[in-house]
Amino acid sequence: MSWIELRKIKKSYSGSPAVRELNLKIEDRQFVTLLGPSGCGKTTTLRVIAGLEEPDSGEIIVDGKILFSREKGIFVPPEKRKLGLIFQSYALWPHMTVRKNISLALEEMHLAREKIDGIIKEVLEKVQLTEYIDRYPSELSGGQQQRVAVARMIAAEPSIFLMDEPLSNLDAMLRVDMRTELKRLHHELGATTVYVTHDQVEALTLSDRIAVMEKGILKQVGTPEEIYKKPADLFVARFVGSPRINSIEGKLVSESGNYFFKKGDIKRKINKKVESIILDLKVNSLIATIRPEDIDVSQREREGWTKADVYSVLPAGSETILSVKKDEIDLSVKVNGFTDIRMNDTVWIYIDPFKMNYYDPRSGKLILDVGLQRK
Amino acid sequence: MNEAVRAKSTIITKLKYQLIRIRYRTDILLSLIFIVIFSFLVLFPLVKIIVNSLTYQDYDLRLVRNARLGAFTGYHYIRVFASSLSYSIFIKPFINSLLVGFGVTIVAMILGSLLAWVIVRTDIPWKRFFDSVIVIPYMMPSWVIALAWLIIFKNDRIAGEKGMFSYFFGITPPDWFSYGLFPIIVCLGLHYYSYSYLLISGALKTVNSELEEAGFIAGLKKSTVLRKITFPIVLPALGSSFVLTFTRSMGTFGTPALLGLPVRFFNLPTRIYASINSNNTGDAYVLALVLVVLAGITIYINSRIVGVRKSFVTMAGKGFRNRPNALGVWRYPLAFLIIFFLIIVFLLPLLLLLWDTFLLYPGDYSISNLTTHFWVGKSNFKIASGEPGIFRNPGIWNGVWNSVRLGVLAALINGFLGLFIGYAVVRNRGTRLSKSLEAVSFAPYVFPSIAMGAIYLGMFARPFGPIPALYGTFTLLVLIVVVKNMPFSSRSGISAMLQIDKSLEESAGIQGIPWFKRFRKIIFPLTASGFLSGMILTFITAMRELSLIILLVTPNTRVLTTMIFAYEDQEEIQHANGVTIILITLIVLANFIVRKFFGNKGLTGLKET
Known about the structure:
The structure holds two protein chains of two kinds. Chain A is of the alpha+beta class. Chain A has two domains: 4-239, P-loop containing nucleotide triphosphate hydrolases (Rossmann fold, 3-Layer(aba) Sandwich); 246-374, CATH 2.40.50.140. Chain A is built from ten helices and 22 strands. Chain A has helices at residues 42-50, 98-108, 113-126, 142-155, 172-189, 200-206, 224-229, 234-239, 272-281, 370-374; strands spanning 4-13, 16-26, 31-35, 57-62, 65-69, 74-75, 84-86, 160-164, 192-197, 209-214, 217-222, 246-255, 258-263, 266-269, 285-290, 295-298, 306-315, 319-326, 329-336, 346-351, 357-359, 366-368. In chain B, helix 5 (86-121) packs across helix 14 and helix 23 (515-544) runs antiparallel to helix 25. By secondary structure, chain B is mainly α. Chains A and B meet through strand 6 and helix 2 of A and helix 1, helix 22 and helix 23 of B.
């Protein structure tokens, strides 16, 4: 049972803010990912939870108990927070064997020798490293080292796991395997997990909820599906998803009592129910976004489809990314498998209006999302 | 009223917060403790020396009418800088210091950079051997070569016997050749070349051959590549080496004292020594401040040079290659030349000192004059004022014990302090606290040794604050050696700490392991090799220390270096030389033992300072 609450956390390093007024609640047993580009404050946030950094202001509450509050004169040091943390570098002690790496903290708990040996055996079985117990970290591969770090963390049975880009030092294949392992581990042990990454695929595949950060500001918190389908602003929309989401800046025009989003040949009617929201903003242009997989492509002309030129074709096995140009707009289009479309071909594309989101071009905030449009 | 209460309560909670957090921040606690201690031991003396230079001292009362002890005055400054005595007190020694500085630096730089280039960048045989033995002379006290010079080139103008050169060739060398500027420059140059070598070879080792090869491929000649590519890259290291060698040789005491004082050739340190010996502390303090200011300037210049150096990215990490230049037929002749050079600067002086200890009357090299009296003889009042031979001399054995004790204690204390300071500085990196600690632990660097000895003499002659009178105690020697070596130990502590990522400690903290155990089980084992090499360095420095402690030793606390100096002063040359041999043997032996038992870490530590 562990829930974490961050209240108005602020932290700056020599004047430049790293985290600005962050509020975040992490429910018990949830797997929450802090996602963002480097320098967005995600690692700082994690270190603040761990107690390795002291925020300038704000409060940290775990299970209703305040761990940090400058205003109230409370500081619980990392030693007493009973957390587990996996560092990006794993931080295995190079002069100790795997056994010693795991037992050092257990000895501090004054457990009996047999008890400690039992725990070591158990956790090493869990990460499938039993036969490496007397190796030094330098004698292990990157993936094995990562698993030792996991074993060391779970041995102390903390109720909160913190992970700082634990997979970023592994090669691509191993990373995918370890994702499965980590998800499995979380499921089995049920510890509340805060996971930091800049890899949006990792965030989408692992998390119950994702918190996207940029420049020290928490941009959006939501389930992977919400984050992917209803990005709260253009930054989130562009950061999540690969290839990058298409965005089209167009005019807001009114014709015979209806409002339309218009850019060149592309013209989409705006739902009556949300007209008032857009009109309240008093904008005359909008930015529409559409995921590459939500654009259909055809090599033959079709009614209502738009003509475009193929700029490049990038097959990747399970899918092929087409880059097409229509007037001045560049669009990425994802099609399944391989295609016989070639560079400089002419194609016809169809943008599904129910999958388009509209953003305010001044603030970058979401105005209309897919869900709203369907109503 | 209400507001005042609220303000008070916020201050109290803030304080409460700081008190709670600081309990778990050992790095901050350590920083605070060290800053207080070092301010007391380092900054306070500096203030004291300034105050003393601006007030009347005992000695002045006889010279100045109406002078009141401790009253404010500019008298010393006027006397030193703008009076009829200025020439002999300040200007002449200052010019001499500059001449010694430039002369030594030029000799040392030429030798050091030539050796560095040949050993690092050519295909000379026995490279690794040369690279490790070339710096051995650096382990010896800088004035050993001066002792050897005296043995060979002493003339009869000064009291005592003629040297070996006169004996064998019947020619008495002129004064300028036997004493004063010329031999000082030669002897110190032959010592400090190793210092230049360390700095320059370090820089040369980081030059990627590909940078030179790129020049060859572009069609440049070998000499052009050397001039246009290699030289500019190591230029900052050369500059840095120039500045540091210059400061060191300018502020050096031992050699100028041995070779200069007999002909009244003074540089600033020997002038300070003479002033203090004649109890004229006012002059001494002003001159000491001159040295402090000069050291400050050179540190500033050096930091500018090193700052530029960092902008050269010479090490790319990957694809690093060092392809040596071919020497062709010159390979072996050059190698033998280097061996010959090493014999002259290292083996020859030691052999001469050794030979000299077997002469009954110095300067007489006939077989009949050989004796073992100075090693094993009993006290005989006809010889050397009745000093018994070295192995029978309890005074000397006491000196050995004191020297070793001083070296070991200083090495241990400095080693641990360096480690803790390194920890406190690196963990708080970037904060004002960390910067102040780094600065205050580096501050002793600007004190000329002789001046620092003078200040400590004054400071600890009486009980001082919580500290009892330390003059005459061994503790005072340990204290001053520890403080003076602090810049080097804290530097090596910092660089050792920078090697280990802070996450290694954090991951232990997260797991509930308390600070002391983290330090003992994780940080200490991981920094042990740096710790060890720092300790050896301190040991060597402490063993060969002369000018720092010469004013502080009393008959009970005499160490080998001060005994050598005293013997030399009393014209008991054989004893002086014999004790020198013992001192060097001890240093080499200690270094050898540590290398034997703790891996090849001994001399590499030299390169860190």
